[in-house]
Design goal:
The complex is a heterodimer.
Chain A: H1 2-21, H2 26-52
Helix pairs in contact in A: 1-2
Chain B: H1 4-12, H2 14-23, H3 27-31, H4 35-54, H5 69-80, H6 84-92, H7 106-132
The chains are: A mainly alpha, B mainly alpha.
Chain lengths: ~55, ~140
């Protein structure tokens, strides 16, 4: 559980920072930040499941 | 006493804003009057730093330069980005607990500390770009 918490916290904070750095208005920044957050979570979970099948 | 030319130089110098932004994450933007951006960046970077330190990240990678130069140098470069945080982590977290590497959060702490530094490098570039007018 702690691994998922760290992943979520990491994605949340990095998503906010990237949203701040993004160009555009407040709405565009918020959407970009949410996209980064979602991408971190989804890609990490897919990779985690994928690595389960590797012997190392 | 500074002359008006010197004052103008210090108040508009993009490198100075970059340095301030590096040393105190978010502060460069605050000095530029970008309150929202500065506060959010400061909160994000310092939060990551605190989480990293509490997770044992200040002791990462836990080996000497000769045992893994590339990983060691990447870690040094990334954590140097924390500015004042680098000094804090070096001054107050030099003696690791004997079992720190076995903590479940040890690796995460290392990543958080590195990413906080790397995000701060981006904040420095952002403050610099704003100062020279390349970014609004």
């Amino acid at each position: 559980m702690i691994h998922f918490l760290y992943l979520t916290g990491f994605a949340f904070l990095v998503g906010i920072a990237f949203g701040v750095f993004a160009s555009g208005g407040s709405k565009e920044k918020a959407i970009y930040g949410l996209k980064i957050f979602g991408q971190f979570l989804i890609i990490s979970l897919i990779l985690a499941w994928g690595f389960y099948f590797f012997p190392w | 006493m500074l002359s008006s030319d010197q004052e103008q130089f210090y108040m508009t110098n993009p490198f100075l804003f970059g340095m301030i932004s590096w040393f105190l994450p978010g502060f460069g933007h605050l000095m530029q009057g970008r309150w929202k951006r500065g506060i959010i960046l400061a909160l994000v970077i310092w939060s990551m730093f605190v989480i990293a330190v509490l997770s044992g990240g200040a002791y990462y990678p836990g080996f000497d330069f000769k045992d893994g130069a590339l990983l060691y140098l990447l870690n040094v470069f990334a954590r140097l980005g924390n500015g004042l945080g680098t000094a804090i982590s070096l001054l107050f977290f030099t003696n690791p607990p004997p079992n720190v590497a076995s903590w479940a959060t040890f690796e995460y702490g290392g990543r958080f500390l590195e990413v906080a530094g790397l995000l701060n490098y981006l904040a420095v570039l952002d403050a610099f770009d704003i100062q020279i007018g390349r970014k609004k």
